[in-house]
Each structure stands twice: as structure tokens, then as C-alpha cells.
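Appendix B. Chain record.
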Amino acid sequence: MIDFFVSIGSLIITPLYWITSVVLVGFHNLLSNVMDPAGGASWALSIVGLTLVIRAALIPLFVKQIKSSRNMQLLQPRVKELQNKYKHDRERLAQETMKLYKDTGTNPFASCLPILLQMPIFLSLFRLLNEAANERPKGILSQEQATQFGEATLFGGRIADTFLRADGDVTVMLLAATLVVAMTATTFLTQRQLMSKNMPADAMSGPYAQQQKMLLYILPLVFAIGGVAFPIGVLLYWTTSNLWTMGQQFYVIRRNPAPGTPAAKAKADRDAAKAARKGRSLGEDSAAAEPATVEEPPRPARVQPKRAPRSQRKPGKKK
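C-alpha cells predicted for this chain:
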């Protein structure tokens, strides 16, 4: 049975070695035109490039995750009603809840898809670095590139080393610890941004909110504990991925927030302020476009000459 699962895992991970190494080597060859091919900076930036390519490919799944997460938030009042209605019948409650999700096209597990799909890539990069550190190339890495990759240093520490395998090297330990803290902090801030800005008040007390609160503290803790065993290159990958997620999430929340959330109120305030500024600007432009009118002084009233009496008229003048 164990051999079966090992075979399945190998069947999945082997193609990822090739995909990961193709993108990694592609960026490295490009950067080698302007940087030292054996330098740690070129390999570190290649890892950043690999991260950006992977995250760009996952954008459709991220959009699906945002929609699913929003639907889950908006459905919380209806989920509460079901909980109150079937609080003594858990089986019926589960059936009605899943029916509600199905009828509204909501997938409760869609919010986990991006991170789940990244895990095999994460593991392939992890193995790629470990094998390169032992001068065993994987994928399309040549023997020379594998040696360079395994021996490349960043700020004095090998990108293939981990906090636990630093062998007392303070530089490696400091660099690894800094990246572990950065990875943990970005994970926490990304989740907190979602809860504080894009969750309506009704959803803050439901089961979905409890799940989000658990993730808020459990995920960073898992990354902090596991991070000490990750190579520096893998820590760099995951921190870059978290920064991408944070920025992407900030953009989506700012431009298209869920109704009834603090982000929606902030967007409404920004739109109102923008409309007011636009109205003032249009008013000033129209005032400037109208020609200035100069008031003319009033003309004096025309006085009709009085007719002279008959006695004063000159003789011989025709009437």
C-alpha cells in the first residue's frame, strides 16, 4: 500500500520537476546576461520569477476563491436560520446546508484551492533545491547549473540551507529567521485583511467566521513551525507568494468589495467624494467657459420736445 502511494506521488511530482525547472532555468538564463550566473542574486531572482509565473497562472482560481468566499459570507444569515431550525437534527442540518451551497453555486472548499494547488509546486522546488545541494540535478537542470544552484549564496547564506541545518552559521540562521518571520507575518496580515475589511457584520459570528478566525492564527503558526526546516530559497518563494496574495486581495477588496462590509462603505465614500470633486470641476469649467458680461450704464429716457403755443410761433411758418 505504501509503495502504491509512493508511486502516485512520484507520478504527480515528476512532471512538476520539469515544469519548475524549465521556468527557473529560463529566468536564470535571462538574468545571466546581466548578472553572475553562479551568483546567489541571479538564482534568488529566478525563484521570484518562478513565483510570479505560478501566481499569474493561478489568477482564475483566485477569482473563483474570492467569489466563493464572498458567497459564503453573504449566506451566513441563511445558514444561521438553518442552524436554528435544525439544531436538534445534525444530519438534516448538514443536508440543508449543502443544498443551500449547491443552489447558490457556492463551493465551501474553493477558498483552499490556490494554496492546495501550490503545495505540489512548493514540494517540487523543495526537492529541487535539496537535490541541487547534493549535486543531483532534477528536471532540465544541468550538472553545472545544479552545482551553481546548490552553492549559490544570498547575503552570505546558501539558499539551499535551512535554519535547522545552519551548522552554527549565524548568517544563515539570521537570514532564515528573517524570512520565516516575513512569511508568517504576510500570512497573518493577508487573512486579517480579509476579515477586517471584507466580511459583513452578520458573518462575523457564524461558523464561517469561526473558521476564518482559526485560520488567522493556525496558518501562521504552522508556517512558523515548519519554516525552520525550509531552505532559504523555498522561504523566498513562499514570502513572495504571500506578498502577491496580499496585493491581489487588496486590489479586489478595494475595487469590488462584498456588500455590507467596511470595504464597501469605504468604496461608497470614495465614489461620493470623487463625484463631488468631478461636479465641482465641471462647475468651474463651465463658469470659465462663459464670457464675462459687462453691464452697460442705463440710457437716459428720451424727452419729447414740447410744442410751442400758437402765439409764440413765427408768422409764415407752416403748420
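Further analysis of this model is presented in Appendix C.
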